[in-house]
Amino acid sequence: MPTFAFHTYGCQMNVRESEAAAKALLDAGHTPAADEESADIVIVNSCSVRGKAEDKALGKLGLLCATKRERPNRVIGLMGCMAQRLGNDIFKKIPTLDFSIGTRCADRVAPAVEAALQGSATLAMKDLHEQPDAPSGHVYQGGFSAFVTILLGCNRRCAYCIVPDVRGDEWSRPARDVLKEVRELAANGVKEVTLLGQSIMNYGLRTPAFDELDPPSPGGYTLPFPRLLEAVAAIDGIERIRFTSGHPSGVTDELIRLYREEPKLCHHLHLPVQSGSTGVLSRMRRGYTRERYLEAVKRLREAVPDIAVTTDVIVGFPGETEADFEETRTMMAEAGFDNAFIFKYSPRPGTVSATWEDDVSDAEKARRNQVLLGDQDVRGAQINQALIGQTVEVLAEGPSLRNKARWSGRTSSNKIVIFTPPERIQPGDIVSLTIAKAAPQTLYAE
Ligand code: SAH
Ligand code: SF4
Ligand code: F3S
Q1: Ligand 3 touching residue 5 (CB < 6 A)
Q2: CA pair distance 175, 91, nearest whole angstrom
Q3: Pocket perturbation via mutation, ligand 1, pick of 11, 15, 48, 49 by most ligand atoms within 8 A of CB
């Protein structure tokens, strides 16, 4: 049987969907390739969030399809957000592509591979207003950590963002299905689950569209997000629960109580802020002010002193002045982020802000990006220094990539720790370690 490989761009949702598609290919009798070069079937899972992400996927597809000249039976396919955005146009750009599968239909990948092996091309797209199927099927390879998608799509429609257009209406999976999936993961040795959703704290919100699609029926209910976390925590074998991404509106007393009282809930929150200027935030349609965001972080940190808060920031949004940018700098200092991902604004076709002038030059975006990265490096180093001497629980992942004699693992706050492994350690074990040394991105322990 032909061998397959996935090349995945974008967020954890895509990683999860590549896994589900890989499971379907395994079930159909295909085997994973040793590497992409040798694979008979290569599937690119794409992201549209910035122009650069699309350029990368297009470049990759071009190179892969060029190899078909020497290897005419090789199958090259596309899935994910760019497939959804471009529709049939992808075949105009890359005529030798075998298939293109939009979002919400990763289950169509395996049939498209069969069709391609028989010589016919596939274009599959789903109506993004209809009730979607969540990605199903996990690949178990002795892994102790898994992603579980609980909220599909997004209804927030931030002015700059393509995600609602490519992922469709927000839809919460029935709690019953989520819990069934987590129970199955636990039965297969998974100890850590990361729940996924673009605006995950909206999980369980009953929008009119949602009531229509999922009428309350026995076992078919969703739960408010904190209740779902509790229900997942009640599953034996699951030791750590993470989720992403947060929004300040979801930082409720209930959630804070869970962080304090539910030992399985990891002390980390990814809370994308995007900007520290209330004016910019309002034009971004983020639904909070600088003050409201900072207040959410402050309440969290007061109640849960060891919580790590990480964020995403966009620099060079249309109309972002030097003063707005300075506000982002001071807000990041005040929030004391443990880590931050900084992105240069990229206008996305069809979004609200793409109709506004992209008036911050590329050079200026690059400068602002560098300034924030520099600030964050200093801040990260200081925060990590303060952890020296503290004892932390680390979930061991396996030998470190750089030095096989040492292992790497993660703290509850999602920081990487490199340590000397005790005897008979297994991936997935939780060990208690005292931090001896700190770098901006990494901690070290004996
Ligand atoms: N749903 C998440 C974000 C998903 S996209 C949330 O709202 O928190 C991941 C990150 O990409 C965003 O947080 C944002 O910082 C960045 N991003 C999204 N659209 C962008 C654009 N048009 N240009 C640059 N960065 C963008
Ligand atoms: Fe995009 Fe905003 Fe939805 Fe996040 S919440 S996916 S930034 S529209
Ligand atoms: Fe990219 Fe799609 Fe995720 S646009 S960030 S892969 S939802």
Answers
A1: no
A2: 39
A3: 49
Full set of structural domains in the chain with CATH: 3-124 (3.40.50.12160), 140-266 (3.30.750.210), 277-286+293-385 (3.30.750.200), 391-445 (2.40.50.140)
Tell me the pLDDT of the chain (446 aa) as tens digits: 899 999 999 999 999 999 999 999 999 999 999 999 999 999 999 999 999 999 999 999 999 999 999 999 999 999 999 999 999 999 999 999 999 999 999 899 999 999 999 999 999 999 998 888 889 899 988 789 999 999 999 999 999 999 999 999 998 898 889 999 999 999 999 999 999 999 999 998 755 444 555 554 444 567 889 999 999 999 999 999 999 999 999 999 999 999 999 999 999 999 999 999 999 999 999 999 999 999 999 999 999 999 999 999 999 999 999 999 999 999 999 999 999 999 999 999 999 999 999 999 999 999 999 999 999 999 999 999 999 999 999 999 999 988 888 999 999 999 999 999 988 999 999 999 999 999 888 999 98
Classify residue 142 by burial, with Cβ atoms within 10 Å: 0-12, 13-18, 19+.
Answer: exposed
**How many angstroms separate the CA atoms of 250 and 44, rounded?**
34
Residues sharing a CB contact under 8 Å with residue 234, sequence separation 6 or more, in sequence order? none
| Ligand 1 atom index nearest CA of 341 | 15
pTM strictly above 0.90:
yes
Centre a 10 Å sphere on the Cβ of residue 49 and count the other Cβ atoms it contains.
20
**Run of H or E residues at 244:** strand 240-244
Measured in whole angstroms, the distance separating CA 56 from the mean position of its chain's CA atoms is 18
For 174, counting Cβ atoms within 10 Å of its Cβ (0-12 exposed, 13-18 middle, 19+ buried), the class is: middle
How far apart (Å, rounded) are the C-alpha atoms in residues 443 and 47? 31
User: How many Å separate Cα 20 from the centre of its chain?
Assistant: 15
Ligand 3, residue 46: give the atom nearest the CA.
Answer: 6
- Our answer on whether the CB atom of 183 is closer than 6 Å to any ligand 2 atom is no
Q: Could you tell me which of 283, 280, 209, 294 has the C-alpha nearest to residue 251?
A: 294
Query: Residue 408, preceding bond cis, omega within 30 degrees?
Result: no
Strands 391-399 and 407-411: antiparallel
Q: From 6, 7, 44, 49, give the residue whose CB has the most ligand 3 atoms within 8 Å, as the site to mutate.
A: 49
* Residues 55, 48: Cα–Cα separation, whole Å: 9
Regarding the beta carbon of 50 and ligand 1, being less than 6 Å apart is answered yes
